Amino acid sequence: MDLDAPATHPARRSSMKRSPLHPLHNPGAPFAMNVAGVDFTAFSISGLSTYVLVPDFDACFDLGHCPVEGARLRNVLLSHVHQDHSLGVIRHRSLRQMWSLSGSRIVVPEGSREAMVEVLKAYDRLEGRHEGERPIEVQGVRPGDRVTLSKRFFADVFQVEHRIESVGFIVTERRRKLKPEYTDLPGVELGRLRTEGKELYDYRDHRAMTYVGDSTIETLHNVPEIFDAPLVFLECTHVAERDQLASPKYGHTHLFELLRFFERNPKRIANTHIVLKHFSTKYTHGEITQAFAKLPERTREQLTLLI
Ligand SMILES: [Zn+2]
Ligand SMILES: [Zn+2]
How far away, in angstroms, is 163 Cα from ligand 2 center? Predict the structure, then answer.
């Protein structure tokens, strides 16, 4: 490394850190992507906001703030209620009411349900609304629960290790296929059999996506099913060598911990594409891309960074 290069000069780096306008790793706009067959729009900066919007699932995963597109999706699945993952629920309810859509359905870890209801009620009072004017639907969930998102998709809840009560979600698509004995029947006949209560379809489940919000590396060791889906969202708050102790201390994951996990469990991650999010505001775009450039090519090919 050239120590005299201006970009890496220690004095320059520390003065950049002190400035409130130092460049951030993310320009502040969401990314629209298709990864492993799933269309989503996502945004994530640690401490500021994280959300992943998936129209096919009719769901937002975390909602640090609520863009217009987020409010069109009814289900809001919060991994935990730290403000950078949950503040958007207030606007979500408000926009859906403004558009005369059905009320927001907010899913939170069970221990956070009551306080979330209080927050929404308090906000309604702040806005001069009487109780019951705007529906409040907050569902508390525990590991092992299943949340139905639509006719085709459901989410299974699992335990996530973080500073406060947290959960993750594995989304499954239930595909249906007409049973072979009915494939040649005309539509009218199928309709008649349906009204008679006949089961016309075979069903098969396909894992679609796993969402982990903020988490320590422990969650990946504890929940092997995380990598059964072709698309997995994980956090990677810290990337710099100097921050290796920060991640376990604050309930987050460091890039080096992920790398060690990937190297020790190559089979578990073999059929998965991983989207990394929630990078700390202390990093510039260059710092993150430089850290990732040092990873083995095989690992990099499996990763997408939300920067
Ligand atoms: Zn966070
Ligand atoms: Zn958090």
Answer: 7
Among candidates 14, 25, 17, 74, which has minimal Cα distance to 48? 25
| Closest ligand (CA of 251) | 2
Token couple for 104: 């927001």
Residue 80 Cα to ligand 2 middle (Å): 7
Q: How far is the CA of 222 from the centre of ligand 1 (A)?
A: 20
State pLDDT tens for residues 129-185: 998 888 899 999 999 999 999 999 999 999 999 999 999 999 999 999 999 989 888
Measure 277 CA to ligand 1 centroid, in angstroms. Answer: 10
pTM of the model: 0.89
Return the pLDDT at 9. 44
Please provide residue 235's backbone torsions phi and psi, each rounded to the nearest 5 degrees. -90, 155
Distance, CA 164 to ligand 2 centroid (Å)?
A: 7
- The mean pLDDT value of the chain amounts to 91
Check if CATH label 1.10.10.10 holds for domain 30-305: no
* 244 and 254 Cβ atoms separated by less than 8 Å: yes
**Structural domain boundaries in the chain:** 30-305
